[in-house]
Amino acid sequence: MTGPAGKLVGVLLASALLAPTAPAQPPAGDVAPPAVPQRAILPGVDPLPPDATPIEVQRHLEQIAEATDALGRDPRRDDPQTDLLEALAQEHLDELVQAHERYPQLRYYLDPIIHREIARRGGPDAERLEGITLPPGADAAAAWSYVTDIARATVGQRRVSATDPQVDMLQALADEHMRILIDAVELQEIRFYALLAVRRSAINRHKDTIINALPDQPRLIGVVRQQGWTADARDALILGMERGIDYMPRTWVQAVAELQDPTTYDALAIHLVRMRGAAPYYTLMCDLPGIDLDAAVALSWDRVCFAPTHARELLEVSEIAVAHGHRPALDHLVSLLAQETVEGEPPDESVRHTVRAHLEYDGDDAALPDWYHANRDRLRFSRDSRCFYVAGQLQ
Questions:
Q1: What does the domain layout of the chain look like in residue ranges?
Q2: Alpha helices by DSSP H, 292-380
């Protein structure tokens, strides 16, 4: 079956696959306990807080993608990724559409969710949009009025698509009013369309306009990288990192790191501290030639260890800090191994691997916590090997 009817059948089938199985009914005479909603749990993925910020949503999606990379098998509909992404569909559809492009490993889960949401939501009001025109030779005020008219006509729309008329309507601004088109990205109602219009319209004569707008409109980083303008945007990228803009995509940090320019290293270190040593950012910069992140990691450790927002954050920064000689971080990791031994929990292989990678110890895993506490005060750190060793012992 093809056409709209076939697509609708596909949406219904996808919805059926995603629907939870009805719980078994209690025997007659029993009183069923109240239903308790179950949260999907995926190792390495932190719960998304209520009223999450764009940074938190982006980080959440990154964690889901990283956990999916570690699956080691084909994905399934009953994987927790389905429920985690499903929970974002109503309030964060734009982010899911962008994640579909950014994280190929999530497309298996995202396809039915996005298509179902698009089918469920109402599309553009074509008749109202047809009445909005851009006057020939429009000045800046008239161009912005045109933008706001499009935004008003889009309010309440519950489906977005790259084929909607708003894309071409906004793209008509590019030749004479690229800066106004960029400013339109700030309007939530038409952000999806405005970004797409900028991406499709960007040519070399717009390069300076787009680069100069970067610190105020960081979502343009995708356009800059797409056009190969990263080196030209170096100053704007550093300015944004030093200033600490509210929404900084991970691709922004990646673009700066890819320059491998030592004059950008201070800005990268500042951002690492601001992000409390978050592993995805550390990974982007830790192997840059000549970079020294010792001070940034020390500050990140201090910020997190006294007031972690959740246990996973403390674990994450500990795994980074131990490679920079922070013995309290090693204390924490060893305490997690000791806790597993006492409580009979299954071992956390990532913690065990990190400890063994940064501690000169050849004994059994079960004996490691006791050995560590017996030798802790004699431990020294070698910056060459990035390992702790027992002072006075032959290496």
A1: 51-120, 293-395
A2: 294-306, 311-321, 327-343, 349-357, 368-375
